[in-house]
Amino acid sequence: QVQLVESGGGLVQPGGSLKLSCVDSEMTFATYVMGWYRQAQGKQRELVASIGNRGTTTYADSVKDRFTISRDNAKRTVYLQMNNLKPEDTAVYYCVRFKLTDSGTSYWGQGTQVTVSS
Q1: DSSP string covering 56-103, please?
Q2: Disulfide: which of 55, 73, 76, 81 matches 24 by Cβ 3.0-4.6 Å?
């Protein structure tokens, strides 16, 4: 059973930084596109950033130039460096391993809370 374990969330003041980590239990980690979603209270889950198996990245417009997604295949870990955090970044952040094919399965972590408040 695939397991994704996130860490690094917490409470931070506006303008501060946090770095989220997500460790994949599977040795096939390097094969997959990985991403981070977030869900704020009362809102739909949205894709924040993704990184391909060759390192190609995508970002939501709302986080461009503030967030950086990266991966370390040797450690089976994907990261989300979040800088210049804003109150509207407050949400539960989820790591996702995207399925390879239409018939495959995407896997999700349990989520980590990020709260930006003074």
Answers
A1: -EEE-TTTTTTEEEEEEGGGTEEEEEE-S--GGG-EEEEEEE--SSTT
A2: 76
Residue 84: which region, alpha, beta or left (left: phi > 0; alpha: psi -120 to 50)? left
Burial class (CB in 10 A: 0-12, 13-18, 19+), 44: exposed
CB 68 within 8 A of CB 55: no
**Which residue type is seen at 63?**
V
Q: What is the pLDDT of residues 79-105, one digit of tens each?
A: 999 999 999 999 999 999 999 888 888
Position 103, amino acid: S
**pLDDT of 102:** 83
